[in-house]
Aspartate aminotransferase family protein (Noviherbaspirillum aridicola), 463 residues
Amino acid sequence: QQPSHNILHEGNHDMADTLDTSHFWMPFTANRQYKSRPRLLAAASGMYYTTDDGRRILDGTAGLWCVNAGHCHPKITAAIQQQAATMDFAPTFQMGHPKVFEAATALARMAPEGLNRVFFCNDGSESVDTALKIALAYHRVRGDGLRTRLIGRERGYHGVGFGGIAVGGIAGNRKHFGPAVPGVDHLRHPLDIARNAYSRGLPKHGAELADEFEQRLLALHDPATVAALIVEPIQGSTGVILPPKGYLQKLRAICDKYGILLIFDEVITGFGRLGAAFAADHFGVVPDMITCAKGLTNAAVPMGAVIVRQDIHDAFMQAAPEDTIEFFHGYTYTGHPLASAACVATLEVYREEGLFDRAAAMAPYFEEAAHSLKGLPYVKDIRNLGLVCGIELEGVPGKPTARAYDVFQKCFWDKGVLIRTTGDIIALSPPLIIDKLQVDQLFAAIAEVLKTQQAIPQTDTVA
Ligand code: PMP
């Protein structure tokens, strides 16, 4: 069946006849809609993509929340090229290479105080599974092996590894894959539009939802069986759900009370998105571990990391005899030279160009522009913090992705602006280098599309 608002075959595509689409299985995609050809991005620079037929597209999403310093930053590109020409690969099992140590040091220096040890992996999903394994093993090496339960939140997104889908709160990511990791529980997410609609920055209401964590610990689980709680400080992928004022502080206090590790999944919020290095800095709540990826290398080479409290690492060192491997975990590409070089260069760029401060300085303007959409057709809520924004639209009954997806397609192709949608929510997370004119262009494009949105018949087929 063909999609009804069929925009997939328009455009003057030079590669239309030559592109073989019969082998690449596109991730998180309704692949059958793209039998003919998907739209293609062919080049990128700074705030813009260029399509294969030469159209310039303003990047309102930093790729996938990841190109924080803007595309193809010359310093990062040069560092990768130089490393590729010098040494392509070196193992890091029982050995290493200088760049990986340099990258770990630079990251630890950027991290909140006390989070000093870095375990490298290749993406956000691996960083989550690595952190969960560190949490479980940490309790065990300290003789506390009863702590095997993990707790996440509804609508949490923690990647697609088995650990990540288990603690994640998205049914669709779990339902085809069996029980994944047993013994996982989920707290409610704090989105409450009825009480907090159009809140600028953190919502006022809902901190009491954190109390549910303690209630569940006592009513459903023995707290002494819980290893870790993992939360995104802002739930990004499922629609920009902000923590109510005081909520994260309460989670921290409950974790402390019961000896449970607190993991912040900062795959999206890390590296300046909120105007500070990490959300932990912005909120003044320091977790025991931070998972990160994306902005770690400005997305130029895949890399993820877990940043671990020093004494958690030290517990492993103290538990085992000196000639024993303390933590049975690692990847062939842990600390890959190209990723390490990209990481060192990226963290330098953030510092040298003051990009986190720049994001903080742009945030009020971004907020004003975002909230100027209030009152437009279909707009139900607007949520923002730093350079992240969610615009929730009234959905089409029975077709939860219909309207926002339609806005996405029109912005992308007709207006030359790349936005992102998740369900009925438009999510924006531009590179931190965005200027005021580009902020205006981004929101003007969305406003124009919303004003001309047709009611979508409920019978439509939508990706
Ligand atoms: N955690 C969070 C909070 C994320 O937003 C994402 C990806 N958007 C991931 C984990 C997974 O990262 P990746 O896609 O690099 O595996």
